[in-house]
Design a protein that fits this description.
By secondary structure, the protein is α/β, with parallel strands linked by helices. The chain is built from 15 helices and 21 strands. Helix 7 crosses helix 12 and helix 9 packs across helix 14.
Length: about 525
């Protein structure tokens, strides 16, 4: 399991919604049945079904359950607990247990990221998260990013390897949450937030069309999938619900972010951004939503810098430069000797280099040097200088420019100005760990009143929890997906033009960043 700092963040208290009138994906009901007699010689399965019909209407009993019904009913003296799954068109019996187990209802809310996977064990009786566990997505060894995994899926046996890798990751986390095998059978429902490719690979669907014109996936809303069909080590009939996608590069994780932010219910215009291995941007309000997405590169995961690393012990996570002495102050995760720089440390470093005039607005060194020492060799764990190079900066600025350009592209297409933005929602590690002031300074975040910049935490995981617990939320997520207008950025000349003009700190139009402009002027005095 990952170190606490490297885990995807747990559900944020700021956005974790207390749901009233829980209507989870599966429900339990205690049945006190009558033993068969000459006066009542109904078949065992029929008696169970008839007892449920009174409260749930039509109930389907799968063949896999039927042989167990007489055994369980007789061993429990006809006092049993039925577990029912909401199929959207009625209810299905997925388990029958002896005695009254209605207080033992458990489900999983899962966030499957390209890099990391996090699983939350949820009490379906009250909606609380009991435990959580996280690990790297084992697919990483088969491809660092989505495009490489799509290529690997096209190789002989590649799709099966990718599916097994993510299922093995999930099963490993489930075993951490439920160490005893008998406990995993008590998990009867799963909800998942993930991008479109991750859903395809989890379900064993060929993702090849996702990266080919016209960029159409096999499915956007796969419906309910029995856990046993993909090899998840829980109740084999437990329904798996994946938050719906919109298209190849806008998945259920983004729909979940919109759901959790509530931007789709607000009269004012808001911006939602999630930058990881991929970047997704959504703009809109209660009347309209527009979105775009594309590969951002692992800029915030340590993937584009010489000394970049994930947020693990020894990663430099905070940096400041004394404007008078030029002395660098830094901290590392767990206070371990510095081994590299993670995303938050990189953002801090760039902001400090810019504010201190070491790099200019074109993000180039002013002194003629091509690198800057963040940690001297004498202090590092490796015995060599940990530096930021010009190439590192240029690579990172490409990610920053992509965010700016995509946002400008959306604003232009809907006729919306920056001044109309009321909130900025930053999701995932992009939102939770990056220092707000530094992110604004380099133009990664907009220069809004700081109270309007909202850290959503793991909005994909929180959305999975909400749809796990509420049919209303499931319908709301599907309504959001139907409402979003998606703009394709691939080879779009307007986007490429804006991208080329966005490689400035903090932005081509510095008046969009009045607080940064003021700080720059103050430092020059």
């Amino acid at each position: 399991m990952l170190n606490d700092k490297t885990k995807p963040i747990i559900l944020s208290d700021q956005v974790q919604t207390s749901l009233s009138n829980l209507d989870p994906l599966t429900q339990k009901v205690f049945l006190s049945l009558n033993p068969p007699s000459p006066q009542d010689n109904r078949a065992d399965v029929d008696q169970v079904r008839h007892a449920l019909v009174r409260s749930y209407g039509s109930v389907n009993v799968p063949l896999a359950i039927m042989p167990r019904v007489p055994v369980i009913c007789r061993s429990a003296d006809w006092q049993v607990t039925a577990t029912l799954a909401d199929t959207g068109q009625g209810w299905k019996l997925i388990d029958l247990e002896p005695g009254d187990t209605t207080k033992e209802q458990f489900g999983l809310a899962i966030d499957i990221g390209t890099t990391t996977v996090v699983v939350y064990l949820v009490d379906l009786c009250d909606g609380t998260v009991l435990k959580h566990a996280a690990d790297y997505n084992a697919q990483i060894v088969l491809g660092e990013d989505i495009l490489n995994r799509i290529r690997h899926a096209a190789e002989p046996g590649g799709l099966a390897r990718l599916q097994k890798a993510v299922v093995d990751t999930l099963n490993g986390l489930i075993r951490i949450l439920c160490p005893l095998p008998m406990e995993t059978g008590k998990i009867t429902a799963v909800a998942i937030g993930a991008n479109t490719t991750m859903v395809h690979l989890l379900l064993g669907l060929n993702p090849a069309s996702i990266c080919r014109d016209p960029y159409t996936p096999i499915v956007n809303n796969p419906g309910l999938i029995p856990a046993g069909e993909i090899g998840l080590d829980i109740n084999p009939l437990a329904p798996i619900y994946c938050l719906p996608s919109i298209g190849s590069y806008l998945g259920g994780d983004v729909i979940g972010g919109i759901l959790v932010s509530g931007m789709h219910k607000q009269p004012d215009v808001s911006l939602f951004v999630d930058i990881g291995t991929n970047g997704e941007i959504v703009m809109g309000n209660e009347e309209w939503l527009v979105a775009c997405a594309g590969a951002a590169g692992p800029a915030l995961e340590g993937g584009v810098t010489s000394y970049g690393m994930r947020a693990e012990p020894g990663a430099v996570d905070r940096v400041s430069i004394d404007p008078k002495t030029g002395k660098v102050e830094y901290t590392t995760i767990d206070n371990a000797p510095a081994r590299g720089i993670c995303g938050s440390g990189l953002v801090d470093t760039l902001a400090e280099l810019f504010l201190n005039g070491i790099i200019n607005r074109t993000a180039r060194f002013q002194t003629g040097k091509d690198s800057f020492v963040v940690v001297p060799a004498a202090e590092s764990a490796t015995g060599e200088d940990i530096v930021i190079t010009q190439i590192d900066i240029t690579n990172f600025i490409a990610t920053k420019a992509a965010v700016n350009a995509a946002t400008d592209f959306l604003m232009e297409n809907v006729g919306c100005a920056w001044q109309e933005m009321s909130h900025f929602y930053a999701a995932g590690a992009f939102g939770q760990y990056l220092p707000i002031e530094s992110a604004v300074t380099i133009g990664l975040y907009p220069d809004l009143p700081r109270a309007a910049i909202v850290r959503l935490g793991n909005s994909s995981g929180e959305a999975a929890r909400q749809v796990l617990l509420s049919r209303t939320k499931r319908l709301e997520a599907e309504a959001i997906a139907a409402k979003v207008t998606y703009f394709e950025l691939n080879a779009n000349p307007a986007f490429m033009e804006k991208f080329s003009g966005s490689k400035f700190l903090p932005h081509t139009d510095i008046d969009r960043y009045p607080s940064v402009k003021e700080r720059l002027q103050a430092r020059r005095l």
